[in-house]
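Case study 2.
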Amino acid sequence: MSISMDREEIKTVIPHRDPMLLVDEVVDMEPEKKITTKFFVDPEREIFEGHFPGDPVLPGVYTVEIMAQASDILILSAERYAGKVPLFIGINNVKFKSPIRPGDTLEIHSEMTYEKKEKAVVTCSAEVYDNGVLACTGDVTLAMR
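Prediction:
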């Protein structure tokens, strides 16, 4: 079964809101397996005023959060985790391969790779593509509380 969602539908799944909601669309999701999302890096984001003046780049922590939020949607879409708050408890194997600039459109792929159901802990392997170019990879671990 393939699922897509717009921004309003995403808000029914995860607790994030502006300015920290970093997913615009779920392009495709296979529940409890994998997800593809999109995010437009708005040049008007306040962060670009200081990171870096004259040469703006999306901070790496935002990229990691973007991977986590795509994973959050995938995990919280499972009935057993619906309504929970996803807590970021780990990030491993992160590699930044290409800078992300204001105005870029990102496509995020995340796949569940590990789950410890009795502890409600899930790890997802994620990739961020910037206009088709691999920009970042990493494994995010989240606890559902």
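Residues 3-144 form a domain with the Thiol Ester Dehydrase; Chain A fold (CATH 3.10.129.10).
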